[in-house]
Amino acid sequence: MAKRIAKAGNTSQPGRLRIVAGKWRSRLLRIADVPGLRPTSERIRETVFNWLTPRLAGARCLDLFAGTGALGLEALSRGAAETVFVEKSQKAVRTLRDNIAALQSSAATVHNADAMEFLQTARDGKFDIVFLDPPFAADMLGDLCRLLATSPVLASGAWIYLEEDRAKPEVLLPEGWQVIKTRNAGNVRFSLVSVAIAG
Predict the structure, then answer these.
(1) CATH code: domain of residue 157
(2) What is the pLDDT of residues 87-135, one digit of tens each?
(3) Fewer CB within 10 Å: C terminus or N terminus of the chain?
(4) In contact, 110 and 85? CB cutoff 8 Å
């Protein structure tokens, strides 16, 4: 995601994104030259994907505010069946598409679109895992969660990864959403949430 503040624990080379594990383990990919664009740190990704392991194999993933694509690419590397990336920055999208081509992945789809508009018009089917990592300064995580809760994109029992500013109060979740895991790293609070919805 294109955060405008640095994240904690990032050990990738400057200007490079490193895949932590899976079939593309240790592959270095380019990061678009967009001010403030930083991948979710390797330390956070390692923790999050340990959490996601029981649900990841064969999952359909949605990476909203994809930015570098760190989360969605890590998911594909570790066995997800498909990832749909949504990113507003054209420059970030070009680099993300180049990285996907370099990985020779046919399981990735990239939409150059606003995340809110995408959710309102989505026709990509249902997703088992959603990575929700909007810019901290936009203060829109609550609105996004409410929109997701009423959209048709979530599979029954979907899991959602949330990343937010640790300095702010925790986001108020929609009814039926339950925090499974949560942790802090530097200025980031990150959580895994389960969604109870009808089939």
Answers:
(1) 3.40.50.150
(2) 999 999 999 999 999 999 999 999 999 999 999 887 778 999 999 988 8
(3) C
(4) yes
